[in-house]
Amino acid sequence: MSELLRVADLSVRFGRSRNWAVRDVDLVIAPGERLGLIGESGSGKSVTALAIIGLLADTAHVRGSIRWHNRELVGMPDIEYSTLRGRQLSMVFQEPMTALDPTMLTGRQVAEVLRLHQGAPSGRARPRVLEMLGKVGIDDPERVADSFPHELSGGQRQRVLIAMALINTPDLLIADEPTTALDVTVQARVLAELRSGLAEAGSALLFISHDLAVVSQMCDRIAVMRDGRIVEQGSLTEVLRAPKDPYTAGLIATANLDAVAPGERLPVLEDFYDH
Amino acid sequence: MTTENLPQPDAEPIYQARNLVKIYRRGPQPVTAVSDVTLDIRSGQRLGIVGESGSGKSTLIRMLAALSRPTSGEIRFAGESIVGRTEAELAWLRRGVQLVFQDPRSSLDPRMRVADIIAEPLRSKIWRGSQRPDPQARVTELMRQVGLDPTDARRYPHQFSGGQRQRIAIARALAPSPKVLIADEAVSALDVSVRAQVLNLMTDLVTQHGLTLVFVSHDLAVVRHLCDTIMVMQHGRVVESGAAARVYADPQHPYTQQLLASVPRLPRTN
C-alpha cells in the first residue's frame, strides 16, 4: 500500500518536563485517506498534529520518526519545512479568529497562501481566491474577500480558513477541532463543505476532535488517544461495533445522548473501568 | 433516577414575560435581537431554549435575569415587575435567580481562590437586612454537592480541569439558594465525555433542590435530556414550543427539523 505519512514511535516532551505529552505514537495515512484522531483535552492530539506540521514550540523535544513521501520530517530545517507547509501539508485550527490576521482583508490572506507557493501575482490570484471561497460554501465571495475577519460570522471565518488550507490542493489536511466552536447547524454545513472540498482537492485528512459523533461523519478510520498514547485504532465501523479498550467503549457511550431516556443518568467514562 | 414530578399546570408561574422586545441601536442599523416574546415559566419547570448564535436566546435570558433592560414589554418574577427597578430594589431577584455561563475560564476570576469565588454571592449587598448564611460552612457544603473536594478550596481556577471549573461555577450559582438556575450553553465548551458528568450533576441538583431551570443551548439533544419543555428561537422570535418529548420526536417548524437533523450522531453498527 502506498503511504503518504508514516509516524513511528513519536514521542514529544516540552522543556524540562519529564512527562511525555505524546508517547510512542504510530500512525499511517494513505493518499486520500481520512483518519480521525479522537481523545479528550490534554490527550496529546494537538501536539501530535503540530509535530507533523512542524509547528511545535522551540522547547519541544521530539523522538521518533515522521516520514512524509519517504522524507524524514523530524529534524528538517525550518526553511525546507516551510516549502511543504501550506502547499503539501496544511492545517485548519479550532479558533479562526486567532488563526486569521485581524488587520488584513480575508481575500488577501487567502491570496497570500497562493502567492507564497505558486508565485501568482496578486491581481491574478483574485479569481482563484473567489472561486475557492465559493467552493467552501460562501454565498457572496466578493463581499467576504473584501471584509476583515471581525466582520464575518464564526462559520464564515472557518470557511475562509478551509479555503486557505485547500487552495494549493495539499496532499494532507490536518483539521484540529475545526467545528467545535460552531453551532450545530453551521457545523453540519461546514462539515459537508469540507467533505466536498477534500474530495475535489483529492486530499487526505487527519481530523482531530473530542466528539466521536463528528469524527464518525468525516473518517473511515479512527485512532483513539489517551494520556499521550494511541490506545486503539482501526476502521470506524469495527471500532464502533467492538471497541477493544474500555476508554473507547466509554467515549462511544458518552457520545450517544439519544440512547438514554431523558432525565436518566448518562453513562460516564468511569463506568467502563473496573475499580 | 426518574423525574416524573412535573409541576402542576395551574401552579402560579414564577416568571411571566409579556411582549418582550429588545432593539440594539449601537450600529448604523438598529438590530432587533428579541421580537415580541411572551412566555410563562412555572415553578419547578425545566425549560430549554434552543437556537443558534444570533437567535436572541442569550438576550432573552439576560432580560429575565435583569442584566439587560427590554426596549418594551413586561417581566414579572414571583408576581412582581422587574423592569425599570434599581439595583437595590432587585436584591430579591439577585438571590432568587443565578446564572452559569458557557466558558468557566472567562466567567471565573483567575486571581480568586475557589472558596472566595463560591462565597462571593454570600458577601454581596443583596443580603442587606436578611439572614446571611455562614460562608465557610456553605462553601464546604456546596463543594461536596457538586462533587469537588472541599480541601481544594484554597486553590485557583487554573488548577482545575474544564469540567471541574464548570462545577465551581455551578457551586457559586447555588450559594444563595436560588429558586431559578439559568444556564447559558453551560456544557457547550466541554469535552463530550465530560459533558455527561456535568449533565448528570445538573439533573441531580435540579431534582434535589426543586430548582426551576432555564437551559439555553444550540444542541437539541442536550436540551431534550435535561428539560421538560423546549422553546425554539430563530431571528428573535419563538418559532415552536412544547413538551420536550413531543418537540424532539415530532418537530413541526422547518427550523426545528433542521436543528434536529444537524445534531451529530454515531452511525448504527448493529
How are the elements arranged and paired?
The complex is a heterodimer of chains A (about 280) and B (about 270).
Chain A: E1 5-14, E2 22-29, E3 34-38, H1 45-53, E4 60-68, E5 71-72, H2 78-84, E6 89-92, H3 96-99, H4 106-118, H5 122-135, H6 141-145, H7 154-166, E7 172-176, H8 184-201, E8 204-209, H9 212-218, E9 221-226, E10 229-235, H10 236-241, H11 246-254
Chain B: E1 13-24, E2 31-42, E3 46-50, H1 57-64, E4 72-77, E5 80-81, H2 91-96, E6 97-100, H3 104-107, H4 114-123, H5 135-145, H6 162-174, E7 180-184, H7 192-209, E8 212-217, H8 220-226, E9 229-234, E10 237-243, H9 244-249, H10 254-262
Parallel strand pairs in B: 3-8, 3-9, 6-7, 7-8
Antiparallel strand pairs in B: 1-2, 1-4, 4-5, 9-10
Helix pairs in contact in B: 4-5, 4-6, 5-6, 6-7
Word description of this protein:
The complex is a heterodimer of chains A (275) and B (270). Chain A folds into 2 domains: 5-242, P-loop containing nucleotide triphosphate hydrolases (Rossmann fold), CATH 3.40.50; 248-275, no CATH class. Helix content of chain A is 38%, strand content 23%. Chain A has 11 helices and 10 strands. Chain A has helices at 45-53, 78-84, 96-99, 106-118, 122-135, 141-145, 154-166, 184-201, 212-218, 236-241, 246-254, and strands at 5-14, 22-29, 34-38, 60-68, 71-72, 89-92, 172-176, 204-209, 221-226, 229-235. In chain A, strand 9 and strand 10 (229-235) form a beta hairpin. In chain A, helix 4 (106-118) crosses helix 5 (122-135). Chain B has one domain (13-262): P-loop containing nucleotide triphosphate hydrolases (Rossmann fold, 3-Layer(aba) Sandwich). In chain B, 34% of the residues lie in helices and 24% in strands. Chain B is built from 10 helices and 10 strands. Chain B has helices at 57-64, 91-96, 104-107, 114-123, 135-145, 162-174, 192-209, 220-226, 244-249, 254-262, and strands spanning 13-24, 31-42, 46-50, 72-77, 80-81, 97-100, 180-184, 212-217, 229-234, 237-243. In chain B, a hairpin with a 2-residue loop joins strand 9 and strand 10 (237-243). The interface between A and B is large, with 38 and 40 residues.
